[in-house]
Fold these 3 entries.
Entry 1:
Amino acid sequence: TPDPISLNSLIHDMVEAGCEYAFMEVSSHAIHQNRIAGLEFKVAVFSNITHDHLDYHKTFKEYITAKKKFFDDLESNAYALVNLDDKNAGIMIQNTVARTRTYALKSMADFKAKVIENHFDGMLMDVDGIQFYSLLSGDFNAYNILAVYSTAKLLGFSATEILEKLSSLSGAEGRFQIIRSEKKKAFAVVDYAHTPDALLNVLKTINGLRTRNEKLICVVGAGGDRDKSKRPEMAEIASRLSDMLILTSDNPRTEDPEEILKDMMMGVDPAKKSKTLVISNRMEAIKTAVNFAQLGDIVLVAGKGHEKYQEINGVKHPFDDKKILEELFELD
């Protein structure tokens, strides 16, 4: 979220270009630093809140308070739309004067959906009693689809119009993006998951879709100069939910990559250490995972997703997980 002057300038340019709707992510940093001051939101959406940004907010309570302020400051003619399946949804709207609406997969809510069939290349969903097929996969994407559907309904669009558009929507770059190897009949998943909750979601999604006759190899690291407490937690999740784990560098920034990896190894169960490798060079880590992959195996490369660089000691070096995987699969 840019500063208030840049943000208003961008929105002005959108209006001049004939844009009628602007959708934006509002970060907790932006709320705390008043970067959205002066903006009036028609709909504010709360999806979930997890262990993140504690290097800035220091405590989870302060993180929640920053997010809550967004809803506290809404006008009475706005909508506060919250995911009722998240335990903190009630906290977000307890002091808002906006009109509150809810969405959920598991709870009774104003907007309801369920996943009927889930596959690696898409899923069949029921949204408010209407079945439709999405090109996206996993419960986390089902929540995102329902949030978009609910928002569009509040803005006055019809259910059939919304679902028709959503049915042709493909995934964002670096978010559960699949790269296939025709030679190995295996594939890789590139995902931006860089928090414990995000990593848990993507691994649970893969495990829910796979046959269990194949190996799941996970390549993951943790960023430097950020919240250190999530490092062992992420390693614990990855080691528990994959058949083989390769810990590597993410964006070490000004930290020693080896020290970051030591922090991560603290979370690996001793019983899982025999199936865990530590390779600080990310390129070598990905290459090792691909070499280990056999017929039908799945390689998850997590943490960087769409990013086209690796930040080391203040320098952003060209690095693209997806491109590297495509090149390695081509060589096999």
Note: The radius of gyration is 21 Å.
Entry 2:
Amino acid sequence: MTEPLVSAKMITYNHAPYIVQAIEGVLQQKTNFPFELVIGEDCSTDGTRAIVLEYQRKYSDIIRVITSDNNVGAYENIRRTSKACRGRYVAFCDGDDFWHDPSKLQKQTDYLETHPECGLVYSSYDVYHPKSNKTIKDFIRYRNWEMPKNPCLLDFIEGKSGIGLGVLTCTVMLRRHLYEEVKTSDPYLHLSGHFRMGDTQLWAELSTKTQFHYIAESLATHIITEESATRSKDVKKRLQFSISRAEMILYLCNKYNLTGSYRKRYENDWSNYSLRLAFHLRDKELANKVRIRKKSFTGKEWFRYFGAKYLVIHYTYRTVAFLFSLFRKKNSQWL
């Protein structure tokens, strides 16, 4: 296998409906340099593994599959797949997204090769909703987000100008040495699995070390699946993800000595989501933990606090909340 200039890193688990399109999106890339596709397959139960192994057999000069006899979990799968990448640059595409532009790798590599001061490039993207078969083209332009010319740590902390959703993983290419440097510099933040998201903190810390460049073209498609690392029908999973995000931002605030409104906002987020989870699970211990950490409650928060402790209050509140939900319009950040 020729030494690649770019490694396309693909993490997959139970992506059978989407994995072929993801792989084909990489194979269709037209470049003047060699690239590889490294697929981290974590013992899927839906046929994904057989699909990726067949692609490896057909394209053994490009594709390498990293797998094992047992499921190792998301963080270990990411770690071992990242370690297997050999290119100077790493481009990301999970098994439920795809690159629709065959010149994506060439455009991003050309920029990094001619701009040594830049460590990460990303682009706009399309958003596809399988349930409605609807595609929103050029999502960043569609949402009228103005991406910062060179985002800094505070942009990620604040979620400024759509940057939190703007730097989407399937659009990113970065220098591998920076990727490895940042991840190994803080194993708790990036490698421990303590936080439920894996990329937001990576982009945030990279912004303190290098310049970013935004390509104002849609080069990839993000698929809105019902279940993913960041989305779920399960209320418990959604709340746990939101709590973890607040904890991660607070960790960054501590690490970089950020105080004031930033910390207060995410302390409030942590309390809000934790109290909602305590109510949902009727977890008295978590409710007490929130009570100790947050000195004052609103009326709604008192109901959730006592609802976590007392059955009658719990079901009364849930009944009232359900009735209100019948008249509430549902919104999505992806629409």
Note: The radius of gyration is 21 Å.
Entry 3:
Amino acid sequence: MEALESNIPKASIIIVNYNAAEWLVRCVKSVLMQTEQDFECFIVDNGSTDGSIATLPSLDKRFIIMELGENTGFAAANNTAAKLAKSPWLALLNPDAFARPGWLEQLLKASSTAPNITMVGSTQYLALSDKPTLDGVGDCYHFSGVAFRAGYGKQIEPPKAGLVFGPCAAAALYHRSKFLALGGFDERFFCYHEDVDLAFRMQLSGGECLQSPNAIVDHISSGISDKVPEFAIYHGTKNRIWTFFKNMPWPLLILLTPFHIAANLAYLGWAVFRKGRFKPTLRGIMDGIKGLPQTFRDRKFVQKNRIISSREMIKKFTWSPMKVVTRGIHIRKLF
């Protein structure tokens, strides 16, 4: 039994790559420099056409390269690796995120804070910024169904450890058994907002997310540019709608749906004045609505696994609209 257990690594790192040749080697080298070396690492290639995998150096047996041959999406690629992972913990790392040496060690340390910690978020800095600038300190969820990465763009010290709604999946730790029991990332989402959706389901099932100030990564982040790709706008809009209607408990769904509709109309109105945003926002809303019948079918499984009350769930939301607008930090005290 001891020999069998010794073959189980402390963490299974998953890097999902799609045409990230410019950054992938640096990402993998950051994994090699970890103070915690007891890991396995899946590098899952989503049908890249830029020769990403060929840029990698020779790697030891802890690294498993999986070439899927097509772009299955961020959600499906992570799920594929998660099913093969051996460790109790899944450490997700984007190919444009570079882990500082103590990143994995600190994530694992944070996971032992309490038995119901099923997610741990990293402190993310913008890799291309001249000054230390936060890329995010956890994902927050406003009661209207708008999620945001807290602290983005702020040049401040990261907050102390505390509870947040969920981690940004660019650099996050998940309890593998819980991840799989809840179905992993929703593959309908393809990419964007799938981490918020998973965090919502984990919260409903009694899990919590600890935001660690010591597990640090430097992230290139698509958010550094004023021009967000239409692809991201479309999927983010569509998936925001599906997340809300799939996960919100019935009493809150009835109460908060008008606010969610208002939030989406506000995004659409704002998009009118931003070049290239209106069409993908409108298309995302329309496809989000078209997909609601399947979303409500999926909702049955989600609510079946819910163990906390609507009252308890309310406490996990962000209620200040100013925090949404300013990317304000909302970290709840530890137990």
Note: The chain has twelve helices and twelve strands.
